[in-house]
Amino acid sequence: MRIELDDLTRPAVLDLLREHLANMYELSPPESVHALDVAKLRGPDITFWTVWDGDLLLACGALKELSASHGEVKSMRTPQAARGRGAARAVLAHILRVARERGYAEVSLETGTHPAFLPAQKLYESFGFRQCGPFGAYPEDPHSLFMTLALAPAND
After folding, report:
1. Has residue 154 got a pLDDT over 90?
2. CB–CB of 61/49 below 8 Å?
3. Fewer beta carbons below 10 Å: N end or C end of the chain?
4. Span 22-37, mean pLDDT?
5. pLDDT value of residue 54
6. What is the C-alpha to C-alpha distance for residues 87 and 9, in angstroms, rounded to an integer?
C-alpha cells in the first residue's frame, strides 16, 4: 500500500470522486452535501492524496487549510470493493501527520448523520476526534455531524 500526492487527473481517481459525490447526494439533501467536486479539490488551500495497491485505487483523502493553525479533512473515500483493507485508516493517519508537520493545532471535519456514515464516524473516533459544533462557514444542520481533534506538535 502506498500513499501518493495526487493531481486529480487519473481516470480511477475521477471515477471514485464521482462515486463519492453521487453517494453523498443519495444520503443527504442537496443543501447538506459538503463534498467537494474536482475543481474545488484542485484549490490552492487543499492537498489531495490517494492510496494504491499496485494499480488498484484503495482510497483518497484531502486536507484543507482553514487557517495557519486549523485544517479540515475532506473527501475521505474508499471504493466499496476495497473496503476493509485499512486504506482509510492509512490515509487519515497520513493527513494527520501532515497537519502536525504544518503546525496545525486542530483538525476538524464534517460528515453525515445518516446511518451509512457510522463506519466513518467510528474511524474518526478511533483517532480521537470528538463531536463539536459547526466550524468555519458551516451552518448548524441536522444532516451534518462535526468533529474535531486537537493536535500535539509534530516530533522533530
Report:
1. no
2. yes
3. C
4. 93
5. 95
6. 20
13, 16, 21, 25: CA torsion to nearest 10: 180
Work out the pLDDT band at 4, boundaries 50, 70, 90: very high
CB 48 within 8 A of CB 3: no
In the chain, the largest separation of any two C-alpha atoms, in whole Å, equals: 44
Helix H segments across the chain?
11-27, 38-41, 87-101, 118-126
The answer to whether residues 94 and 50 touch, using CB atoms and an 8 Å cutoff, is: no
Nearest in space to 147 (alpha carbons), one of 133, 139, 24: 133
Length of the chain: 156
> What's the one-letter identity of residue 112?
G
How far apart (Å, rounded) are the C-alpha atoms in residues 39 and 42?
5
**Confidence class of residue 31 from pLDDT cuts 50, 70 and 90?**
very high
Q: Which of 97, 94, 96, 104 is nearest to 68 (CA)?
A: 104
What is d(CA 123, CA 129) in angstroms, rounded to the nearest whole number?
Answer: 9
